[in-house]
Amino acid sequence: MMTLMLLIFLVGYAMIALEHPLKMNKAGTALLLGSVLWVIYAFAAPGLIPEASGETFKAFLTQNPELGQLPYAEQCLQFVTSYQIPHSLGEICSTLIFLIGAMTIVELIDAHGGFDFITRFVTAREKRRLLSMVALVTFFMSAVLDNLTTTIVMVMLIRKLVDDTHDRLIFGSMIVIAANSGGAWSPIGDVTTIMLWVQGNITTGATIPNLILPSLVSALLPLLILGRGLRGEVSPPAPSAIQDADDLTRQLSDREKLSILILGVVCLLAVPIFKTITHLPPFMGILLGVGVLWLYTEMMYAHLHVPEEKKLRLSKVVHRIDGSTLLFFLGILLAVDVLRYGGLLSTFALWLDQSVGDVYVVDLIIGTLSAVVDNVPLVAGAIGMYPIADEAMIASAADPAYLANFVQDGVFWQFLAYCAGVGGSMLIIGSAAGVVVMGLERISFGWYLKHVSLAAALGYLAGALVYIIQRLLF
Predict the structure, then answer these.
(1) Among 123, 80, 104, which Cα is nearest to 313's?
(2) What are the CA-CA distances from residue 185 to residues 70, 75, 179, 292, 432 (Å)?
(3) How far, in Å, CA of 356 to CA of 359, rounded?
(4) Which of 60, 77, 121, 420 could form a disulfide with 375 if both were Cys (CB 3.0 to 4.6 A apart)?
(5) Taking the chain, what is the end-to-end CA distance rounded to the nearest angstrom?
(6) What is the Cα 92 distance to its own chain's centre?
(7) CB–CB of 211/193 below 8 Å?
(8) CA neighbours closer than 13 Å in the CB half-sphere of residue 415
(9) If you write DSSP's letter for every residue of 381-402 in order, what string do you get?
(10) Three-class secondary structure of residue 233 per DSSP
C-alpha cells in the first residue's frame, strides 16, 4: 500500500509541477491528491501504524480504554479519524489562518492605495540606478509583505517608469530574484518561512541576523550581473498607457492612505513580538491585527463622504484573497502528512542521513529542486521527515553532533529557509513571484533560462557560501 501511495503522490506532484502545460489548476490536483491518499491510508492503517506510530497508538488506546473491546482494524480507524486527522488539520489550519490574515491586511493596504507611498521613492531614471532601487525596495518589502504581493506592486511600478520591452524583462527578472531573496530572511516574508516559523522550527530572533546577509548577497550578485547590460536612461511610457487611479483612491487623502499603510505594516511586524510576549500561536496575533485594521477603516469610512458602493470595507476586500492558493496549501499539506503518518518520510530521512549525511548538502538539494517544483511541499516534506530535536533526543542519539543540527533554529532549519526561498529564483517557474511576472510581463521560460538563470544560480550559491562561512566562524 505504501508503494501505491508513493506512486500516487509522485504522479500528483508531477501534475502540480506541470500545471501550465497541462492547463490544470494545481489547487484541484492537490486537493484530490490529499483526499485520495487519506482514503488509501485509512484502509492501510492496520499494517502501517504499528511501525510508523506505534507508541502514539498505544498512548491513544490507554487514554481511550473503551476502544479496547473493538477489533484491531476498528481501533486503527478510530486512531486515524479521532487523533491523526484532527492533529493534522490543527497544524495545517494554524498556517492557513495566518496566511488568510496576512493576505487580508496586504489586500486592504493595496485597495486603499497605501503602496503608492513606497513606489514614490523610486524616482531614478538612469537604468542601472533604477534597477538597484527597484531591487532594494523589493528586497525589503518582501520581508514584511508576502513576496507575491511585493512582486505585483513592483511590476506595476516599472510599467509606469519603463517603456522598453527588453528593459522591462530585465527589471521583472530582478524583481523575482529580489522578492525571493527578501522573503527568505524574515519569518513572515515567504510561505515557506511562515510554515517553519509557525511550526516552531525557527524563531525571529535567530532567523533575521543569520539569514539577512546571505539573502542580501543572493540578490546583489545577480543585480551586478544583470545591470551590466543596461546603458543610459529609461524612457517612460506614453501618458495614455498609465492607468488612472480608481474612484476611491482619488477621493482618499494622502494622510488616510499613509495611515492605512503604517497601521497595516505595524500589525504585520507586531506578530513576532506578540508571539514572544504572549506565547500564543502567530495566527492569534495576525487575527488581532486584522481586527484592529478593520475597526480603523470602519471609523475612517464613518467620516468619509464617499458613496457606499465605492467604499472598500474589509468585508469586500476579503473577496480579493486568492482562495485557490489557500486550497493548494491545504491539499498538499494533507498529502504530505499522510506520508509522514505512514512512515515514508522518516524512512526517506534515514536514507538521506546514511547516503548524504551532511545537512548543508541536503538543504542545497532541496533548494535546487525548488527551482523545478513548488517549494511548499518540499518544505512540508522536510518538516515531516525531521522532528525538532530536543536535549533528550540528542543525548540518546548515536550521533549527537549531527542531530544537534535539527534543534529549534538549528543549521538545518535556518539553511532550509534560505535554500527553499532563494533556490526558486533559478527558473522562472520556480516560485510564485516568477510565475506572476511570467504572466504579467510575458517572460518566456527559455528567455529567463538563457539570460537570468545563471546569475540567479550564482547568487544562490554565493549566499549559501556566506551562510556556511558564518556558521563556521561564529
Answers:
(1) 104
(2) 50, 44, 11, 27, 17
(3) 8
(4) 420
(5) 47
(6) 14
(7) no
(8) 25
(9) HHHHHSPPB-HHHHHH-SSHHH
(10) strand
DSSP 121: T
Q: Which amino acid is at 81?
A: T
Task: Look up residue 322 and give its amino acid.
Answer: D
Q: Does residue 242 carry a pLDDT above 50? A: no
> pLDDT tens, 188-233?
888 889 889 988 999 989 999 999 999 999 999 999 999 988 888 8
3-state secondary structure of 407: strand
What is the Cα Rg of the chain in Å? 24
- Interatomic CA distance for residues 443 and 452, integer angstroms: 11
Closest CA to 34 of 331, 343, 374: 331
Return the bridge partners of 126, or none: 233
- Torsion over CA of 298, 121, 428 and 383, rounded to 10 degrees? -60
In this prediction, residues 312-321 reach a mean pLDDT of: 82
d(CA 344, CA 351) in angstroms, rounded, equals 11
What is the grid cell recorded at 84? 491523526
C-alpha 200/C-alpha 275 separation (Å) is: 11
Burial class (CB in 10 A: 0-12, 13-18, 19+), 197: buried
Instruction: Give dist(CA 256, CA 260) in Å, integer.
Output: 6
**Distance of alpha carbon 1 from alpha carbon 157, whole angstroms:** 52
Residue 68 DSSP label: G
